[in-house]
Amino acid sequence: MEFDIYQVAAFTRERFGGNPAAVVPLKEWIDAALMQKIAAENNLSETAFFVPTGVNEWHIRWFTPKVEVPLCGHATLATAAVIRSKLEHNEWPITLQSASGPLLVDIESDAFVLDLPADKPVTISLLDGLQGVLGAPVRESYTGRDLHLVILDDEATVAKLQPDFAALGAMIEHGVIVSAAGDQVDFVSRFFAPSMGLNEDPVTGAAHCILTPYWSNRLGKKTLMARQISSRVGNLKCEDLDQRVKLTGYAVFYLSGQISV
């Protein structure tokens, strides 16, 4: 079997910036074990697979190198870029059915606008040992549906973090978002998920589903500018719609080819 494959950087306008995702269009679903092997071979934070399901509608699934995940924002944006540029689809918005329900993607100028489910943070006690594993004082601690969120003192503290990834992977099943108010944007963040095969994810759409309602409430504003300050850096416009969030960002194509399995 042979399949087309594309590599697209999401939430950036710069080559080698943002978060790279692999995108594999399918005519029909293949075995999940095979999709997982392809994702492991790609060795990117996420590989997205999608199949057509109706007029202006597709079904999408996402895999890290280790596991299938219920939501991935950056690979959704990358998939929309493939649908627009490679499938030459011109009717927008589109609907992507997923394990997290229907996701809408629209286009504003050259940017893609993702409509995703909000993940409102709930205050929790700080996990024992987490401060030591992260290497910085934690001021607030929250959880969402799957992800942890901790708030640090400032952007410089977030930028300098060098976590113990082995210990963090043993401590947290999914991932942890670290965030602080930004110096030039409303807030900054980084995302660590070693248990899922991602020591650090460069730019994480799903993380902003919990970051957006948190910072919207804290700053008292519905539209925010965010930056994920990994080594690749990504920029997002975030809008709090109560039960939904909108994330706006750009995409840059890097690679097109075929895989043979």
Kindly identify the CATH topology of the largest domain.
Answer: Diaminopimelate Epimerase, Chain A, domain 1
Helix content: 10-25%
How many strands? 18
**Spatial extent as radius of gyration:** 18 Å
Strand content range: 35-45%
Structural class: alpha+beta
Shape: globular
Described by strand count, sense and barrel closure, the largest sheet is:
18 strands, mixed
Mean pLDDT across all amino acids: 96
The quaternary organization reads as single chain
Count of all domains: 2
Instruction: Write the CATH architecture name of the largest domain.
Output: Roll
Termini Cα gap: 5 Å
Counting DSSP H or I runs of 4 or more residues, the number of helices is 6
Write down the secondary-structure element order: EEHEEEHEEEEHEEHHEEEHEEEE
Low-pLDDT residue intervals, each spanning 5 or more residues: none
The CATH top-level class label of the largest domain: Alpha Beta
Q: At the fourth CATH level, what is the homologous superfamily of the largest domain? A: Diaminopimelate Epimerase, Chain A, domain 1
